[in-house]
Structures are given as structure tokens and as C-alpha cells.
Amino acid sequence: MADDIQPQPGIMDIALYEGGVSSLAGVSNVLKLSSNENPAGPSDAAKEAFSRAVHQLHRYPSADHTSLRAAIGEVWNVDPDRVICGVGSDEILHFMCQCYVGVGDEVIHTEHGFAIYRIATLAAGGTPVEVPERERTTDVDAILAACTPRTKLVFIANPNNPTGTMIGQSEIARLAEGIPPQAILVLDGAYAEYVEGYDAGLALIEERDNVMMTRTFSKIYGLGGLRIGWGYGPRAIIDVMNRIRGPFNMSSAALATAEAAVRDTDYTEKCRLENARLREWMATALAELGVPSDTSTANFVLARFADTAEAQACDQALRDVGIIVRQVAGYKLPHCLRITVGDESACRRVVHTIAQFKGAKA
Ligand SMILES: *Cc1c(COP(=O)(O)O)cnc(C)c1O
């Protein structure tokens, strides 16, 4: 009978993930700044690799991702044997929960942390534990205080989304050192490439056995549509995850395109510099208009308004001219809007529209 058919515990507690809006009724030419995509798209080398992949579509892809892992190993100076590739870093986050979390286990994420941490935890039957942040920044002491003998994973995005803030290497090290022995620290480095000189936790991973890192091709590499991510960590953890990974989880087109993208380090560097320049310009211009933000280390700015009503009114003013940004009430930041750093004209349009909105209100 219908009542006898029930999903696994936790699954019905998952609220459907809401992605960034991508269209507006009646507007044909929208400017989408709601999903932290690279406005310049992928590098030419990546696009050419994708085009070439069309000739091999009848072949099954590599099951061990040797070629992409080797490229990642060379570019990031990591051991390719300890790299695992996934359908977006989302898949790696799900693998971590599936492998290490069950009913009764706890998974810590921060107050304004990425929605997938909670979803992946519930999907595995675990209990998400939300820990407060301090001024929209990860609070290591609060996390350590929330740890229990049931804590299995601690998810930290560094830089964090949607806040754009990050914590320093010594704070991350203190966290890795302080969590209980049965717990793993997962450093989500989706925006790591935007931070000059940041190793995304690599040094810490090499020196410990309880730290894991996830990375993505969806942000600076401009390949969100292809769904490619990777993880790096201790051999034992990678071995566990490879047991549940589908052998053909990555398509041949995704593998080839990602390899070309990661090798094109000149392009990545160009995108990083352009993002930093425009982010600074936009954040400063907004602050002068009375819309402050924390110093962002990623490819977006979390604009703070006086209250929820003003944030919503500004969002509407942007939509009225065809600009879509991200409302972040679901991240407990109802008075904020997350605005992706677009290209130069996009940033100018955002600032111009918010200036008019503020002017109209005054
Ligand atoms: C965008 C983002 C990701 C990337 O997810 P993919 O599945 O790789 O597209 C991961 N973590 C955070 C915090 C993000 O903002």
C-alpha cells in the first residue's frame, strides 16, 4: 500500500535546492549575475577540446580519469593517485556523506554555509548541525564547541559562499587539529583559484590524515554547464570514495575539456586578475552609495542593505532592468543580495541601477 512505501530517513526533510534564477518573464536579454559564473566563459583551449570530443562520443569514457588526474597533479603539484573526479564538486560532497555518515551521525556546517552540505547530510540519513558564524565569517571556536563523539564531517567553504569571506591558514590548521578523532574536515575550495597565493589547504592535507579538499571547474574555469569537480585528500579516504564512485561518472567530453582548462593557467590567471579588479571597483562604488559589503575573496560581492524590505526593493529594481542577482534569505541573510562580478559593462550596469535605486529612495 502507498503508506508502506517510504523513502530512507531524512530524505523528506530535504527542501528542493533553488538555483540562481536565469530568466525573467518578458525580458529577452537578461544579465545573469546569480550563480557566480565566469562572465568570460571557458578558455579557447577548453572549447576546442570540447569540440574535438564530438568525434569520440560512441566510446565509453575513461573509468579511472588518468589523464585529467595527471594534469591536475602537474598544475597543482599534487599526487594524482589521491585525486578523485566527480560530476561537479557536489558529487564529491555527496560521496563524503555517503561514505562516512549514517543515521545518528552529525555533520557540522556554518550558519551561512552552502546549501548542499545540509542536503548531502540528510540524503545520507545524518543530522546537520548548524554553527553560528561571527560577522558572516567562519568561527573556529564555535565549530569546535559544537563537536561531539557523533561528529563525522565538518564542512567549511573557504572562501565561503554567499559571504565571500575566508579564514586564514592558521585558523584552518587549528580546526583540523581540534576536531575529534573520528571526524574529517572538508575544505570546499570552489573559489580557491580567485585567491592569490592560497593553497586551498594542500599543505595541511599533506601533513595530516583528517583533511579533505573539494574543487570545481564551475567557477573560474567557466564550465558549470559540464559538471566537473575534483577532490584531494589522504589515500585512505580517496580509496573509500572510489568504491562507490560510478566507473563512468565523468563523460569523455567533460574529461577532455577539464584537462585543457586546467592546463591553460595563463587564462585562469587572467580571469583571476580581472575578477579582482572589477570586484574591488564594484564593492567600492556600492559602498559609496551606502551599500556596504565584507571584503570578498571570491567572484561575488554580498551587498548589505538596511533591511529585508530594502534588499527586496533593490532586487526588484534590478529585475526591472533585466539584471538577476541572488536573494540569499535561504542563507539567513534576507537583508543582503549576492551579486556575481560580471564583465566591466555588467558591473557598471549594476552600480548604475543601484545608484538610481538609492537616489530614487532618498
Ligand atoms: C558553486 C559552488 C560549488 C560548486 O559546485 P559544482 O557542483 O562543482 O558546480 C561548490 N561549493 C560552493 C560553496 C559553491 O559555491
TrEMBL record:
Its EC number is 2.6.1.9. Keywords: Amino-acid biosynthesis, Aminotransferase, Histidine biosynthesis, Pyridoxal phosphate, Transferase. It catalyses: L-histidinol phosphate + 2-oxoglutarate = 3-(imidazol-4-yl)-2-oxopropyl phosphate + L-glutamate. One of its GO terms (molecular function) is histidinol-phosphate transaminase activity. GO terms for biological process: L-histidine biosynthetic process. Gene3D superfamilies: Aspartate Aminotransferase, domain 1, Type I PLP-dependent aspartate aminotransferase-like (Major domain). Homodimer. Pathway: Amino-acid biosynthesis; L-histidine biosynthesis; L-histidine from 5-phospho-alpha-D-ribose 1-diphosphate: step 7/9. CDD domains: AAT_like (cd00609). Belongs to the class-II pyridoxal-phosphate-dependent aminotransferase family. Histidinol-phosphate aminotransferase subfamily. PANTHER family: HISTIDINOL-PHOSPHATE AMINOTRANSFERASE, HISTIDINOL-PHOSPHATE AMINOTRANSFERASE 2. This is Histidinol-phosphate aminotransferase. Its cofactor is pyridoxal 5'-phosphate. It comes from the Bacteria. The modification N6-(pyridoxal phosphate)lysine is found at K219. SUPFAM superfamilies: PLP-dependent transferases (SSF53383). Residues 29-354 form the Aminotransferase class I/classII large domain.
